[in-house]
Amino acid sequence: MISLSVENNNFQSKEDYEFIVNYCKKYNVILVNDAAQSISHQKTSLNEYDVIAFSFNKFYGPTGMGVLALKEKLIKKLSLSKFGGGSLAEVKKNKDFNFKNNLTLFEPGTPNIANFFMADKSLDFFNEIGYEQTQEILNDLSLYLHEKLTEVKNLVIYSSPGDNIALINFKNIPAQDVSDYLGSKNIYTIAGIFCSQYLRNIQSQYSFVRISLGIYNNKKDIDKLISELKNVEGNYGIW
């Protein structure tokens, strides 16, 4: 099995995914795509991957809801991690039981029905715009953002124009402090290592401020961000 992220939020690596897909098909290797970071702007399909996983909060949907899409051939090969009434097809008098033979095997218990409705609405919202227009919007914003970031003194930029996120740090101010300051100005970023604990072992710089772009953002949002980033050093230790 090979598990990969087509796009990640720690470092912008560029892999030959076409080669990986073809390799896995040739040698019958199960290929898992962690699409959490890419699902909102890159099409992905089970024609290429055996398993696709993502969180709906990355797709303009509710928190606490994930999607695990997998090819039907894998259903009988996977073992359960959670058990419940919804997993069972039959319970016999002698207390033996049989599991279901379809996807509901992996959905024991009562589902989060409210989240399903919210997820459905997030799909409607996104489909009104579509992947093509989404990519155009995000690329335009990314180019503008990365150009404006160069105006901020003592700022290190780790991402590149065209990336859908920006990774930055001030030279002498911890990432969390920068993010806290921006939050006090109603600008919400995230700081840290973004669930990638192993990153500490493979590169010296592993904590960043991450600026995520969405289709609801505009250049006025970026101008406000840049204005406050220029104030970070002068206000450090005060807020």
Structural features, described:
It is a single chain. Strand 1, helix 1 and strand 2 form a beta-alpha-beta unit. The protein has a four-stranded mixed β-sheet, with no helix packed on it. The radius of gyration is 22 Å and the shape is elongated. The protein is an alpha+beta fold. It folds into two domains: 128 residues, Type I PLP-dependent aspartate aminotransferase-like (Major domain) (Aspartate Aminotransferase, domain 2, 3-Layer(aba) Sandwich); 104 residues, Aspartate Aminotransferase, domain 1 (Alpha-Beta Complex). Its cofactor is pyridoxal 5'-phosphate.
Give me a quick take on this structure.
The chain has helices at 17-26, 113-149, 175-184, 219-229, 232-235; strands at 2-4, 31-34, 51-55, 66-70, 88-91, 97-99, 155-157, 165-170, 190-192, 208-212.
Q: Class by helix and strand content?
A: alpha+beta
Domain module tally: 2
Main beta sheet: 4 strands, mixed
Output the number of helix runs: 5
Assembly level = single chain
Q: Terminal Cα separation, in Å?
A: 48 Å
Q: What is the 3D shape?
A: elongated
Unreliable parts: none
Name the CATH class of the largest domain: Alpha Beta
Topology, number of strands = 10
Walk across the major sheet and give the strand order: 1-2-3-4
Helical proportion, percent range: 25-40%
The CATH superfamily of the largest domain turns out to be Type I PLP-dependent aspartate aminotransferase-like (Major domain)
Q: Overall mean pLDDT score?
A: 89
Per CATH, the architecture of the largest domain is 3-Layer(aba) Sandwich
Question: H/E element string?
Answer: EHEEEEEHEEHEEHH
CATH topology of the largest domain: Aspartate Aminotransferase, domain 2
